[in-house]
User: Fold Multidrug effflux MFS transporter from Rhodocytophaga aerolata.
Amino acid sequence: MTRKTYLSLILILGSLTALGPFSIDMYLPGFPAIAKDLNTTVAEVSLTLSSYFIGISFGQLLYGPLLDRFGRKKPLYIGMIVYVLSSLACAFSTSIDALILLRFIQAVGSCAAAVASRAMVRDLFPIEDNAKVFSLLMLVVGVSPMVAPTVGGYVTAGFGWPWVFVILGAMGAILLVVVYLGLPESSVPDRTLSLRPRPIILNFLSVAKIPVFYTYSLCGALSFAGLLAYVSGSPLLFMEIFSVSEKEYGWIFAFLSIGLIGASQVNSLLLNKFPSNQIIFVALIGQSVIAFVLMLGTWQGWLGLYETIGCIFIFLCCLGFNFPNSSALSMAPFSRNAGSASALMGALQMGCGALATVVLSLFSNHSSLPMTIVMISTSLLALLLMIVGRRHIQSFA
Assistant:
């Protein structure tokens, strides 16, 4: 593989991976405006995030077997078309219930990109390079939290929140063309795989019972839930509690994302000296400590705007070390059914994330304490699982 081909694949796969985060981050500054236009509350608008995460969780289980059965690109095309059409429909929503439903459909479309990109990393690159490739993908994905909320803030302020979804639809259409022209088919369709429910369930169970998979995929999923708790709670935290503007919120969100992306790139260097499982373990310890400080400081009222930003920045740095390594180790045991493994890993992530956002919506009390409680709870659970799960892992550690 030439360097040009390598970089081209990273860019396309990274863009596919970033489609979901863009769909999450870009409309966050518009929460107050959406609530006003649809005659509802910011807490109700946050349910559009929950429905999106539920849609991704469900959709990934749907696409996993399809990617193994029909190859990577055909199911990807279908998902991208669904994404484009539903994004445009979101722009014309006239009620919060309609927007919640359309966000679910939008998520089902977008998750094809996430599942296919992870499976294609396993297809196209040597297994020993997967952790580094995932770190590079996070560099591309990092454009989302750095750019999307800032752009979304300016678009919402200048043109209104519906235009955010028009832009997302246009991005999906452009990416569909790029995939068609520039991405090779990386897997031969496996006609022996059945699409009947029983064989699909048995296939997922065969993936889930492998200690390497369930340990690292659940560690990543729980950490991801902490991330989405922050994402879901951040509009309330910054725009209502600390009274920053839509544009200022976008810049704060962009700055904080530097921690996540910067750490993922430092991770590539650390992999030259340390194994992935050691990096995850240390990152989970740091993540748990800083989440505890954030929760305690919020509870006692010790933290102002800048102190809160500092704690969240460190928390996201720990996630930047966690995600690439947990993804690579989760996928390591699989080749033939990499699509199903990718789907199950993504479903676990989004399922935990959906649960976190629902909890925040239910226990919203106009403070950031519920957000910090979810962040510390998921961090400690991930650390405990890592300690217990490592005892059952015999290989791929």
User: Anything to note?
Assistant: The mean pLDDT is 85.
